[in-house]
Hints:
alpha/beta, seven-stranded mixed beta sheet, 8 helices, about 45% helix, globular, binds S-adenosylmethionine
Amino acid sequence: MVWELLAPQLRQYLDTRVPPRPAEMQAMEAYARETRFPIVGPAAGNFCYLLARLIRARRVFEMGSGFGYSTAWFARAVQENGGGTVFHVVWDEELSRRARKHLNTLGFEDVVQYHVGEAVETLSRVEGPFDLIFNDIDKEAYPKSLPVITEKLRPGGVLIVDNMFWQGRIFDDADRSATTQGVRDLTRMISSDPGWISSIVPIRDGLLVAYRDGGNT
Ligand SMILES: C[S@@+](CC[C@H](N)C(=O)[O-])C[C@H]1O[C@@H](n2cnc3c(N)ncnc32)[C@H](O)[C@@H]1O
């Protein structure tokens, strides 16, 4: 289903509120447009950057990093927060190589660590805890990712999940596909768990922002 969730005017307005990006990031945006590669885009990317700055994130784990566009926003935040590590994780070697080229050009070689592999499995293997985890993997794997994320995110940490509207498919009761069900299930799992305080922010395709409640930590 092709479905423009936000009115094009509103979407364009939100994207154009974001300050100009470096030339390399603009080239990444242009490449995504030309090849129809699904990146988070300026408004959602900038919002991720804002959240990472707000919680002073130094350790970020990204699940499903593509060619590194969303990674660039997190890397900028971590660098400005005083340095740390952003895990770039994708199962495609070529995308990982492309990301490294872009992110090195942007000056993030000291911040980004590259892993080629399945993201949930990789997260389960690396040492936590993380201040922030960003989830943008294949949607049918969303539910099974949650227990691993919960284990690796520090109390007081933030989880961001993309595509919570799934281009409007979640509103179609006849759509029982594994991807749509994956988005619905994750939404239900988080919103019904008292250990999470969450909200879905209607930027682009819907970003879930969830705070892992940990008292005053
Ligand atoms: C939607 S794109 C992400 C784009 C990136 N987050 C951005 O906004 O710039 C998702 C990427 O993650 C990869 N991917 C999907 N599921 C994955 C998984 N379970 N493990 C590793 N990579 C995955 C896809 O092949 C694709 O390259």
